[in-house]
Amino acid sequence: MSRLSRAQLQERNRAKVLDAAMREFAERGFRDAKIDAIAERAELTRGAVYSNFPGKRALYFTVLADLAERAPQPPNPEPSLTPREALGALARAWLARLPMTTDEPDALARIGVDLLPEILADERTRRPFAQLMKLDAILLGLALERLRPPATPDGRLVRLAEAALTTLYGASQLAAAAPGFTDPFTVVSACERLADLDLDDRWPYTPWIPRARPADEAWSPPPVLDAVRGEPARLTGDGDGDGVVAILGLHRLEAVEEAVRAAPAGAAITAVLVTGDPDELAPLARLAVAELCGCLRQAFPPSAWPRLQVVFDDSGALAAAAGVLAVSDATEAAVRVEAGRIVVRADGRGACHTAASTSGEAVRSPEPSPGRPAPSPEDIGSPARRFAG
């Protein structure tokens, strides 16, 4: 038998640590779990555990993210044709794993009871988690809009999605603290009835958009996975990946909605999530998106999945391919891709809107197109007008 390479040995040890940690967290909970006990279960040293994970919380978030991403996906049910049907199906998929609906909750439910308390304990996790919830609400709101387009050009259903997620996360916490308190059928019915509310949700003004910069650079991104669909992301190839690629730190995730609202119909929008703390915050991001999107894929037909791809870029390789060489949780940068080349760049707050609303032709040439005045420098880098949906 050939000897394992160093990389193969590290990968095997990491897998052993994750398996041991899952069993330790399931039996003792996060608070009472011990690194020494995890090392003993994995038949490794304490140092081997810390060589793979910087601390217990990073290990905890990674275990939960792996469980959420590997959760079995049942066959697609009957297509949901209305927001009411879709929200009911989403709620049923969400509740199926909780103690309120089964005497033997799955591993994710047992291990996950300490998640929100642990997030609340530290500002370093609270702020990114708040933005991850914003991203989840945008994803769910966009899916609802594809089933029932808003009545006005600036209308949206993101607030409705926020209300549904608030209901479901509240049910999760009560299921952990007081199993049996809440009737799951009541929660499903409440989510369904949310679809009938008129929350007067309108896409707001943006305070500022930065100046677009013309570019003419090859776009050669590495292969990556779209976490929304669970399949390779569409980033290149005969125009299929043309659109906006937004590099967003975990404090700026809600900015991706600016790209979605400002981009022309049919343009691909990709949110590339980066962080200055990939060991701890990257698995938290994977977990938050996987929990929602696993349920979304069960509740919504593929035709209603949001026009938004989400990619995790822990290594920074995809950001580097877009020309963003240094990233942090405050990063907001975006590029416009046309015919497989980067043609527009923007950086800073408002970059997503700038890249989405400025074509390569517009930023290169001041000549107006028929019936439309040329954009002036004041139009790119000034207070923005209301965006069309």
Structure write-up:
This protein has three domains: 6-59, Homeodomain-like (Arc Repressor Mutant, subunit A, Orthogonal Bundle); 83-194, no CATH class; 213-379, Glutaredoxin (3-Layer(aba) Sandwich), CATH 3.40.30.10. The chain is built from 15 helices and eight strands. It has helices spanning 6-32, 35-42, 46-52, 56-70, 83-95, 107-111, 115-120, 123-147, 158-177, 184-194, 256-262, 281-299, 317-321, 351-357, 360-364; strands spanning 213-218, 225-226, 231-232, 243-249, 268-274, 309-312, 332-338, 341-347. The strands form two sheets. A six-stranded mixed β-sheet has the order 1-8-7-4-5-6. Helix 4 runs parallel beside helix 12, helix 9 runs antiparallel to helix 10 (184-194) and helix 11 (256-262) runs parallel beside helix 14 (351-357). The longest helix has 27 residues, at 6-32. It starts with 5 loop residues before the first helix and ends in a 25-residue tail after the last helix.
Layout of secondary structure:
Elements: H1 6-32, H2 35-42, H3 46-52, H4 56-70, H5 83-95, H6 107-111, H7 115-120, H8 123-147, H9 158-177, H10 184-194, E1 213-218, E2 225-226, E3 231-232, E4 243-249, H11 256-262, E5 268-274, H12 281-299, E6 309-312, H13 317-321, E7 332-338, E8 341-347, H14 351-357, H15 360-364
Parallel strand pairs: 4-5, 5-6
Antiparallel strand pairs: 1-8, 2-3, 4-7, 7-8
